[in-house]
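does this look right to u?? guanosine-5'-monophosphate version
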Amino acid sequence: MSNGDCIFCKIVAGDLPCTRVYEDDDVLAFMDIGPIIKGHTLVIPKAHIDPLTNVPDELLSRLILVVRKIVGAQMKGLDADGINVTQANGAVAGQVVPHLHFHVIPRFENDKHHWNWNAKSYDSTDEMEGVAAQIRSGLPLEI
Ligand code: 5GP
Ligand code: ZN
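got this back:
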């Protein structure tokens, strides 16, 4: 469940240093070395898993509970005004480290960070309905 070429697996093993915020048997939360905002924390499974669709339900539950814990801790401990939680799947989505991770990023009034959220539109309602039908065709029978 560990990948010798993976930076995050090396961090879990203690072969690379990190500043730990929270740890249990399955999950590690540590400081991102390149914070979008100071306090930016990563939450990862200790096992080498990627992408999100490969995580067993129980471990995903553990992960999202720790994400919630870190959100609360940043609000309380850093007095954050808000929090972004993001997670990328695939290089095209901006993922650099191919070991599942959630970014938990504290936000402050006047922190001057702006996401490049470039909202677009559909040509028609029919186009949007068609894309929704494609997504529905990919849904598993059970969730
Ligand atoms: P991604 O772009 O894959 O979603 O995010 C990877 C994150 O890992 C980046 O925010 C980057 O700053 C962080 N990161 C990369 N290498 C290291 C490292 O060696 N130590 C720590 N603490 N964070 C890292
Ligand atoms: Zn890994």
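Residues 7-115 form a domain with the HIT family, subunit A fold (CATH 3.30.428.10). idk if thats expected tbh
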